[in-house]
Each structure stands twice: as C-alpha cells, then as structure tokens.
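A favour, since you know our structure tokens better than I do. Just paste the record in under my message, thanks.
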Amino acid sequence: MPTNGIELEVFEAGKGGIPIILCHGWPELAFSWRFQIQSLVELGFHCIVPNLRGYGNSSKPNKVSSYDVISLSDDLNGLLDYYRISRAFFMGHDWGAWLLWHYTLLHKDRVSGLINLSVPFRQREKTDPIKFWENVLGKDFYIVHFNNRPNVAAKSFNKNPRRVLTNLFRTDHWLSERSKNSNYKIIKSAESDYGLGKLAMSETELEVFVEAFSKGGFEAPCNWYRNISRNWRLSEGLSQVIETPTLMIYGKYDMVPQVDMSKSVKNLQIRTLDCGHWIQQERPEETNNLITKWLKLRL
C-alpha cells in the first residue's frame, strides 16, 4: 500500500467499521495482533494492521534518518489518507506505543482514542537519552550499543534469527531464581541461549517471525533505535501533554519500567496484567477484555 513515498504491507479486517490502526513493536510484525483482530471486528471496528516501515514486506529505506518520528508519523497520516479516514483509534505495543505517543502529540486531531501496551509516555528528557543511558547502564546496554556500534548487533542477529527470536520472545522467566543473576545481554542474542522461562508463543507462530526476519534482516528495524537522539532533537518545543482518551496496559513483569503519567496524560486509565513484555500475545483474552471494555465506553 503506498504511503509517504514508500510501500507498507497492510492487513485488514472488518471493512466498513470504525477504523483502528494497530502498530507493532520490535522485533515484531502485524502478526503480533493476531489475537485481537477478531474481537475488535466483532465490536464493530475496521482493523488496519501494517507491518511498519522496515518490517516484513514493507519498504526498508537505507538512510537511517528515514526512521525518525516525522517519517514514521507521516506513514500513519498517509495510511489514513489512503483509506480516506480523518480520525481513527490507535493501539500500539513497544515501539508501536512509543510512536503513537508522539504521533498523538504531533497529530492529535487524527486520534480518536489511544491504547498503548508496555511502553509508557515519558516527557522529553533534558539531555540526550542515549548519553544518559550510556552513563547509567553502560556501553553494552542494547539501545546504546545499537547507536554507538551501528549494525554490529543487527548483523550478528541476521546469522541466527531463530535463536535471537527464541531468546527475546520469553515469558515466565521471572519465576526462575536464576533470572536475578542472569548474564544474558540482548546484543548477544545470536550467540547463546537465554534458557529461562518458556517461549511466549507456539513454535508454529514463532516460525512466522523467523521467516520474516530471515528474509528482511534486522538492520532496518534497529534503525528505529538509531533515531533516538535525532527524535530528541526534533521534539524540542513540542507540547509534552496528551489529552486524548488513553488506556495504558502494563505487564507486571515487563522489563520496561512503569512511570507516573498523571501530569502528562490527562485522560488516562491504567491496567496491569500478570505477564511480561509481550502482553497481547502472553495474555490475549485478558488483553481483549480490557480493550473492548474501554472501547465500548467511547463508541
């Protein structure tokens, strides 16, 4: 589907319904929303589910700055324009959530309501976040490493996508006492097995991700991380308050920390599920119950 000078691979269901755009995270795909689509269609929604820029069969521009917040937001604007939609509901997880927080700041007139999973809204930091994280978490923290050693990890990931994804898509690892002392590093995901907890999906479902990343590689998806400093600069002077009705769903054992959004997201409902990072895949029924209950109040 053409948008903003590129092509996005887009899946949809429930044509004619109320539009809702579902935005996946890293390293994920539109397939990550497989459990939510039917319940949303039954509720009367038209689900529009893209493989975002850099993922699946969508375009993968080589230029790193092609993955900044302006380009990614314009992809969503182009998607709405393609369907001749002025406003839609949006739901995001991980990087998809990050994108939608900022998309709402940039284009609030196009967002009817917002549901985000895992990644909360953080107001703009006073200093470049990459430099801050390097000082606090070290040079091997994966986000720092992706920026300071461009594509070193991504090229490593490309050598063994199955091992990388098997290591990342874990659940119940917090139940193991060994998790507190684990030396596992995301940047080493292709080199050793994490071995804690269990796979957060079936082997058949994992194969969908393995096939996509074996074909498309990890460089383009990792470029989202490489724009953190650029996005920080681009956001200077941008309002840091969101007034759009919002549902935030956390995973109790997610590595992403919760934050106080009481002053930055004005119309906010927060819920927490007993799971890790891959919320809508680990707890699909509970996730669906929360989002349908929240959406029904806004129809």
